[in-house]
Amino acid sequence: xxxPPPSPGRDPVTATTGTEPFSWVRPSPWxxxxxxxxxxxxxxxxxxEPAYVSSVLYTMGVLTLAAxxxxxxxxxxxxxGGVSFWHTNTFGAxxxxxxxxxxxxxxxxxxxxFITTFFTMSWRGGRGWTWITGVLxxxxxxxxxxxxxxxxxxxxxxxIGQQAKDAFNAIGIGAVWNVMNAGQQxxxxxxxxxxxxxxxxxxxxxxxxxxxVAPPPGAEALExxxxxxxxxxxxxxxx
Amino acid sequence: xxxxxxxPTKARAKRHPVATWQGPERRFDLITEGTVAVAAxxxxxxxxxxxxxxxxxxxxxxxxxxxxxxxxxxxxxxDTNDPSDLAQTAVQELLGGSKTAGYGPPFNTTSGxxxxxxxxxxxDIAKSIFGLxxxxxxxxxxxxxxxxxxxxxxxxxxxxxxRQYKQAGGDLSPGASADQLASARQATWLNNxxxxxxxxxxxxxxxxxxxxxxxxxxxxxxxQAEQRIASNGSLDGxxxxxDQQLTTDTTMGTMFFGDGTLWGTVATAQGVAGDxxxxxxxxxxxxxxxxxxxxxxxxxxxxxxxxxxANLDLDVGLLMILxxxxxxxxxxxIPGVNRIPRWIxxxxxxxxxxxxxxxxxxxxxxxxxxxDAEPPSHAT
Lengths: 239, 380
Ligand code: HEM
Fold this sequence. Notes:
The structure holds two protein chains of two kinds.
Chain A: H1 28-38, H2 41-44, E1 48-50, H3 60-80, H4 90-119, H5 128-150, H6 155-170, H7 182-211, E2 223-225, H8 233-236
Helix pairs in contact in A: 3-4, 4-5, 5-7
Chain B: E1 19-21, E2 25-27, H1 30-52, H2 75-81, H3 83-95, H4 122-130, H5 138-150, H6 156-167, H7 184-198, E3 203-205, E4 208-210, H8 219-231, H9 234-240, H10 251-258, H11 262-269, H12 293-298, H13 312-330, H14 340-343, H15 347-350, H16 352-358
Antiparallel strand pairs in B: 3-4
Bound molecules: protoporphyrin IX containing FE.
């Protein structure tokens, strides 16, 4: 299908109105419309924010994300060196230390973030999924850290695995998730849990960008939903 | 002060997904902020890494020899430093008296061992779905098979002892129940020998165990063969390598080591045992999985009777699903819980500047739609 030329009511870049119906055989126009309606670039890459956001508490989310990035980069180096090279290689050991402190920083920032968003009730105004994806990010982060501790290939990881097996076996998942199998933990840590975490965090941040941060309690009326698609969509979706 | 009531936006279903803040704004840049954050956190981590490094295992306990970084627990380490513990544990593995032998699924078919909650045994349910996924026969896997494979071919006395032992019965099939591992005759030998090894007169070196003569059958020869392969490292090689492939699965060795006492001694010395809130600290003073405080704390609750509760892990697991997962997940919708921020109105402090600047002014009644934060540019 050729994309029709821009016309009033259409987004000039994607030529979508945001009202395209869904179709199983040809979902692309609908997906274009969905993305333009929900994630206009002015929302994804903003250069303005509500004045009340200038608080150190509002940097906790982005600091969590920054720590996640530092942790992934240092972890990639350790994994590339081979699972156990860092025990004997000073560069590897240093990368491991960065990885270790990156995780501690991430959880510290995340804890403050968690508490702040709870006490600001940031789930208000249709932001329930932001909260839910946040809790999921927390839980998957715990699983990621846990599998990381299990693949250190030293005494500590042996001990943690031998201890953790009891809880896993008690609830039954020990039958397929064997925490004493270092190879399985390696795959879970560097592939599965990290991929799931990145997916959840992307959704979390996408949802925040879409709606913006929650207004202070009592100021809800200052937050105004954008007008439905037509006819001003070309102005509001200027990409 | 603004009244903290939330008036749900009408026509929820039809609301446009994108909302725009009409109150005071300030300039910033998402990309700049993100870049600065990554650089700052990277510097912070590099600083912490340079100052404090990170813990890398090693084995320490009072009286232990110096241990290189990253040293893992091995049968060789165990036998070198505590041969009596290894020998006595090996006897229990043959007898079916070890923790592993009595574990139940997923390691063996020992009945009544899996934890239960109101009559439900999740481990048994998992076994009926997936089967016995990690079968271990402690007598065979930890002692008889490695001794037969690694020593018997080169030592006729050991070969004879193994043959004699096996002729006396016992179930060596994978995952056999603990009470089937040793026949009555074997159990007599093993119990006699266990008593002798535990007596004060017993003398140990990494390759010998010396006890007064008694009715032990072929057991002492087998146990000393086990000590020999432990002390020269070949038992570790046996646990690490399966028949055909190389392996990254450390289950066998770990289960065997965990049946001994030296294993727990090392953990206690390093402050990571369960009754020391073990999971929260990594070795020594390093922080560990601090975020598991709730989980670690539940193991300390007197009401759960940590020392005498056979279903402790399952109880804690279920409580964690409730308080660690469902409660935070649905907190915004749980009546009462979602009022806590109103009762403890910290948000009034967090947003004090906003409330001060808006003062008593009513927020503008439904501001006109402002599609863009910036004046339209001339491009496009
Ligand atoms: C990997 C973990 C996480 C990352 C990278 C992350 C990232 C972010 C970022 C960048 C923001 C933007 C504004 C701000 O910083 O306040 C945000 C907002 C938010 N986060 Fe998270 N977050 C994570 C975990 C969590 C957790 C555990 C929760 C709590 C359940 C949570 C709940 C929220 C909520 C409700 C908002 C909206 C704040 C508002 O509207 O004022 N997030 N998150």
